[in-house]
Write a structure and sequence with these properties.
It is built from 6 helices and no strands. It has about 180 residues and is an all-alpha fold.
């Protein structure tokens, strides 16, 4: 029988308990950008058929697939944070005793949170230039291609939002690691 003080076993592919409710929401929503990758693949298959079988390529397929893949990469940062799968030097980390690992988790989460916040601020500076004209009117940056979608502007906004959420997720992780919170499911 499992003692109440033992950690709750979890799957490798789910949010860590310390990520809280936000981490669980991020984990559940991961299916959306994953489906975007499937849609991108289907668009590319369609484009190959249209181009090489019918000689009638589209002018939107390439930009749309790049956009869908970019969204999944941006979301991947959020998912890695919620699952506590971000980069760390495990050669050193794995050698640490549990108390030192806890301190390392607190420091790593705090530093990553500050970095994510700084990157979110930098992304905001980029969004200001790509979403508003000099006269103050709203207009998202477009690609400049023949189709000219607003994908670059939308992607910059999504990146800024993801970085802000990532900073919040790291703050939650920092607090929960500092409290020694294991989390409840």
């Amino acid at each position: 029988m499992m003692d109440a003080s033992e950690a709750i076993p979890r799957e490798e592919h789910e949010a860590v308990p310390q990520s809280g409710r936000l981490g669980r929401v991020i984990d559940r929503l991961a299916i959306i950008p994953a489906l975007g990758l499937v849609v991108a693949m289907l668009i590319l298959i369609q484009e190959v058929v249209l181009r090489y079988v019918f000689g009638r390529p589209t002018n939107w397929a390439h930009e749309t697939t790049v956009f869908l893949c970019a969204i999944s990469f941006v979301y991947g940062g959020l998912l890695c944070t919620a699952r506590d799968r971000h980069i760390r030097v495990v050669l050193v980390y794995d050698l640490l005793p549990p108390a030192a690992r806890r301190v390392a988790d607190i420091l790593i989460s705090a530093i990553c949170g500050l970095s994510s916040g700084a990157f979110a601020w930098a992304a905001w500076q980029m969004v200001k230039r790509s979403a508003w004209r000099p006269d103050g009117s709203f207009h998202l940056e477009t690609s400049g291609s023949a189709w000219n979608p607003a994908y670059p502007g939308v992607l910059k906004v999504l990146l800024m939002v993801a970085l802000a959420i990532m900073a919040l997720q790291f703050a939650i992780l920092t607090v929960n690691y500092a409290r020694g919170h294991k989390g409840a499911r």
